[in-house]
Amino acid sequence: MINPLYTDKNICEQMKQAFQEAGMIKLPNFLMKESYDSLSRFLTKQKGVEHKIPDRYSVYRYPSLVVSSPSMKSIFFSDEFRSFLSSILGKKAKNFTLHVGRYGHKNYTLIHDSELAGKRIEFFYCLSPPWNPAWGGNTVYVANENPTVFTPEDNSFCIVEKGKDMNRFLQYINHKAGKNSFILVEGSLK
Amino acid sequence: MIFVNRSVAGMASTLKDRFDAAKPFRHVVIRDLLNEDMARKVLQALKSERFEEKESDLFHLHQTKDLQSTRNKTLQELHSLFSSKDFLGLIQEITGIKTKKIDMAGSLYKDTNYLLCHDDQLSGRKIAYIFYLSESFEEKDGGCLVLFNSKQGKPTTISQKHLPLWNSLMIFEVSARSYHEVEENVSTKDRYAIGGWFH
Questions:
Q1: Whole-number mean pLDDT of chain B?
Q2: ipTM of the complex
Q3: Chain B residues within 8 Å of chain A (Cβ atoms)
Q4: Is a pLDDT exceeding 80 seen at residue B106?
Q5: Is B6-198 a domain of CATH 2.60.120.620?
Q6: Would you state the torsion angle of the CA atoms of residues B41, B77, B59, A115, taken in this order, to the nearest 10 degrees?
Q7: Of B83, B75, B87, B89, whose CA–CA distance to B41 is shortest?
Q8: Which of these, A25, A29, A93, B58, has the minimum number of CB atoms within 10 Å of its CB?
Q9: Is the Cβ pair B58, A110 closer than 8 Å?
C-alpha cells in the first residue's frame, strides 16, 4: 500500500528527524501503484457537493459516505497508515478527522479566525493532473514573512505541524486551470 | 468642482434615493463622474504610476501607494477634488454620512487577478468608493464588483454584479453587511480603477 521506501525503519528515522526539524515534510510517490490506481479510480468518479461560504471557502466536498468507504478505509484507516504516521510523528497517531475535497477553477479557502485554534498536525494526500503553480491551488502555510507553499502533486503526501500562530489557506484557482481539478484527502489530529 | 460633470451635482437628490433604496446594502453608481477629457487624463496619469503586485489569501492584484504622495499633477488634482469640502459635501448629501478625509490608491487587475469576499470593515472607514477607469469591460471578461446578500452577518448568495463602467463612481456604505468581491479578470484587458474610503 504505502511506498515501502517510507516504511523502511532507517528511512522512517530520517523522515522523523526531518519532520521534527522543519515541522513539515512532503513525500512524493506515496502510494504503491495498485493502491494509487484503485483510490484514484474510486475518488475521480465520485461527485462532490459545492460547499461555499464566500468569506471562508469554496470547495466541492465529498460526502461522509465516500470518506468512510472501503476504498478510503483500506488506506487511511489501516494499521499500516496509522503506524507510518506514528513513526514520523514520534507519538501514537490517535483519532483523526478526515475530509475529501475537489478543487478546480474558482475554488479557494481563506484564513479565518476560527481556524486559529491551537497547535495540531495536518496532513494531506493529493491526486492531481500535472499542475502549474501559476494556476493557484497551492496550499500555503503562513507563520511569519516566509510562507511555505505546497503545489498540488499527484500521489504526494504532506504532513505539517501547524503552530499556534500559523495560518493555512488554499490559493484561489484561476481560469488558466481550465477544467483541471485536483483532489485532497485532508486530515488533522491534535 | 471644476472637473466634475455638471449634471452630477444636480442629481444629488435622485442619487440619494437610489443609495437609500439599494439592496443588499446601501450603494449607488454615479455615471460619467468627470468631464471626459479629465477622465482620459486621469487614466493616462494612472498608467504612469508605479504598481506593486500584491498577493494574499484574499487577493491577487496590483496597487499604487496612497496617491496623496503622488508627484503626478493630474492625480494630485483628483486627490484634491475627492478630499475637497464640496465633494465631501456632495457625498454627504447622497449618503447622509459625514466624512472628513480619504484614502486613495490606484488598482490594476490583470488577467487572473481577483479580490475575494470581504466586508471592508476597519476602524474609521465609513464609505468605500471605486472610480472605474477601465474601458470596454463586458460581463464575459470578469472584473465585476459582486455584492452579496447576508444572513446573520454572514455572506450568502450573490445579489448583484456591477460592471466596472468607464468614468463611473461606485460608493457603498461600509458595514457588517457590506460583503463584496471583485470577480477574477478572465480577459487580457487591464482593469484600472482608483479607490479607497471616505473616513
A1: 96
A2: 0.95
A3: 57-58, 60, 112, 114, 116-119, 142, 148, 154-156, 179, 181, 184, 186
A4: yes
A5: yes
A6: -170
A7: B75
A8: A29
A9: yes
